[in-house]
Design brief:
Alpha-Beta Plaits; two-stranded antiparallel ribbon; 3-methyladenine DNA Glycosylase II, Chain A, domain 3; two-stranded antiparallel sheet; about 280 residues; alpha+beta; 3 domains
């Protein structure tokens, strides 16, 4: 009798399980949403990072927009030109490659170099530190080094180094610009991927005032401007600014800058000496 009392509930539960499984299977077939094959193909070509840098809600949102003609084939920022070309092939359209960009942190003065005002012990993010007296660095444009950009990056492409300055891994950077939005100091710029000569400073003070808060700050001395053979660098609002279209990356500004504010991120840029022009007789 006791066995029957145990077996009957087990059988009943088993039958109910089978019935529900059949019902779920039927419902899945009956109410299945069929995706446009073109959307499936485009979605398969996307990286699947769902970073949102394209302006759409994830990769599926972008794939739907591309298939509907509401977004371009090169709409995926993270995928770059390689992904754009795959999508263009799927759609059967021609594609003009975009000039690829990467993030660059325009500061290299860590805690061992920059002048510090106090020891910060608050919430460990740059936004909070920036609100509190503008952060612990005397330079109000310097990297706070608390990793807000690092945490915002979905590709593990930016990290705070041992000296408290954020550094971008150019090989991993997909130009999603999440770090740009996360930096309260507006220190991170998107620069051409092949541009190695860059100004690693954002300080808008002039001369002694800039140097007092950071020994490697741009002091607006204009030595770079005077020595550039291509007229590709000018001091604007007390800060050296490079025109990437004109810049040939000859490296003269890197060599001449007395503050070492202009750097070569690859370390491969060599100074190119121009041959003197021949004088006609």
């Amino acid at each position: 009798m006791n066995v029957i009392l145990i077996v009957i509930p087990i059988l009943a539960l088993g039958l109910l399980g089978v019935a529900f499984a059949v019902l779920l299977g039927f419902s899945n077939r009956a109410f299945q949403v069929h995706m446009d094959p073109k959307i499936e193909q485009v979605l398969g070509a996307l990286p699947g990072s769902n970073c949102g840098a394209c302006g759409f809600p994830g990769c599926l949102g972008l794939a739907e927009a591309i298939a509907a003609g509401k977004a371009e084939a090169n709409g995926c920022v993270a995928g770059g030109n390689a992904t754009a070309q795959k999508i263009a092939d799927i759609l059967g359209v021609s594609l003009t490659p975009k000039k690829e960009v990467v993030a660059f942190v325009a500061c290299r003065a860590g805690r061992s170099t920059a002048k510090m005002n106090f020891a910060y012990e608050g919430v460990m993010n740059c936004q909070s530190a920036n609100v509190l007296f503008g952060g612990d660095k005397a330079c109000r444009w310097g990297c706070l080094g608390l990793g807000s950009c690092e945490r915002a990056c979905p590709f593990d492409a930016i990290h705070v180094n041992a000296d408290g300055v954020s550094v971008v891994d150019r090989e991993k950077c997909t130009s999603c610009a999440k770090c740009v939005a996360a930096c309260p100091r507006k220190l991170i710029d998107m620069v051409p991927k092949g541009q190695d000569v860059l100004v690693a400073c954002k300080n808008l003070d002039r001369g002694r005032k800039a140097k007092d808060v950071c020994p490697i700050a741009c002091t607006a001395c204009k030595i770079c401007e005077k020595n550039c053979p291509e007229d590709a660098i000018h001091v604007i609002d007390n800060l050296a600014v490079i025109d990437y279209v004109k810049c040939t990356q000859c490296g003269i500004c890197v060599q001449k800058c007395p503050q070492a504010s202009i750097i070569s991120v690859s370390g491969k840029v060599e100074v190119v000496k121009k041959e003197p022009e021949a004088v006609e007789a």
